[in-house]
């Protein structure tokens, strides 16, 4: 007895009319746009802070007064494996730098970084100290910088909106 393992769908894939119709309907280009639309409106930041900016700016932005949840960015994840945005909020010391890098590397792609506050951008008031890294971009790629010591919670929200625009328009590097 001869076994016929071919599925009826295989026969359809040999029909040039069907193949051309599928090619007409399915376009890969817009798929990336749809994914970026979803990514830009549902970022999952990592719950992770290094110093005062984490409380003053990041926790303030997620609290009830400023309510980052309005934009769909409130799902702070306790694990880097479930996060796509690292918000570096606070002073990066040379001792904590390896952990910052490790957490970043543990995040799945695509991933983005927001540097919140003077310390995360440039070392801040401690830049001359022997133990402070002069900015997160010395360790990992940074997409958005939010200046201030500490920045206002509104500035953090604005940083997320800048990142949203960058995800929606990948060729735009400044906003
Ligand atoms: S920028 Fe200012 S508020 Fe933020 S971590 Fe540094 S010293 Fe603290």
UniProtKB/TrEMBL annotation:
Residues 52-162 form the NADH:ubiquinone oxidoreductase-like 20kDa subunit domain. It is a peripheral membrane protein. GO terms for molecular function: 4 iron, 4 sulfur cluster binding; iron ion binding; NADH dehydrogenase (quinone) (non-electrogenic) activity; NADH dehydrogenase (ubiquinone) activity; quinone binding. Binds 1 [4Fe-4S] cluster. It holds the Pfam family Oxidored_q6. Its EC number is 7.1.1.-. InterPro entries: NADH_UbQ_OxRdtase-like_20kDa, NADH_UQ_OxRdtase_20Kd_su. It is found in: Cell membrane. [4Fe-4S] cluster binds at residues 52-53, 119, 149. It catalyses: a quinone + NADH + 5 H(+)(in) = a quinol + NAD(+) + 4 H(+)(out). Its main location: membrane. Its cofactor is [4Fe-4S] cluster. One of its GO terms (cellular component) is plasma membrane. NDH-1 is composed of 14 different subunits. Subunits NuoB, C, D, E, F, and G constitute the peripheral sector of the complex. This is NADH-quinone oxidoreductase subunit B. The lineage of its organism: Bacteria, Bacillati, Bacillota, Clostridia, Eubacteriales.
């Amino acid at each position: 007895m001869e076994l016929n393992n071919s599925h009826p769908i295989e026969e359809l894939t040999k029909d040039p009319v069907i193949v051309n119709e599928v090619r007409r309907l399915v376009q890969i280009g817009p798929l990336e746009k749809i994914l970026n639309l979803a990514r830009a409106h549902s970022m999952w930041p990592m719950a992770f802070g290094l110093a005062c900016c984490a409380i003053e700016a990041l926790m303030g932005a997620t609290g009830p007064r400023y309510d980052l949840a309005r934009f769909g960015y409130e799902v702070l994840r306790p694990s880097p494996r479930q996060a796509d945005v690292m918000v570096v909020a606070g002073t990066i010391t040379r001792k904590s730098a390896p952990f910052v890098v490790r957490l970043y590397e543990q995040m799945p792609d695509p991933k983005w970084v927001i540097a919140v506050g003077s310390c995360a951008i440039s070392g801040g008031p401690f830049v001359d100290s022997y133990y402070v890294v002069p900015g997160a971009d010395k360790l990992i790629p940074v997409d958005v910088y939010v200046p201030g010591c500490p920045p206002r919670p509104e500035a953090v929200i604005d940083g997320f909106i800048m990142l949203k625009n960058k995800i929606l328009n990948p060729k735009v590097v400044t906003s």
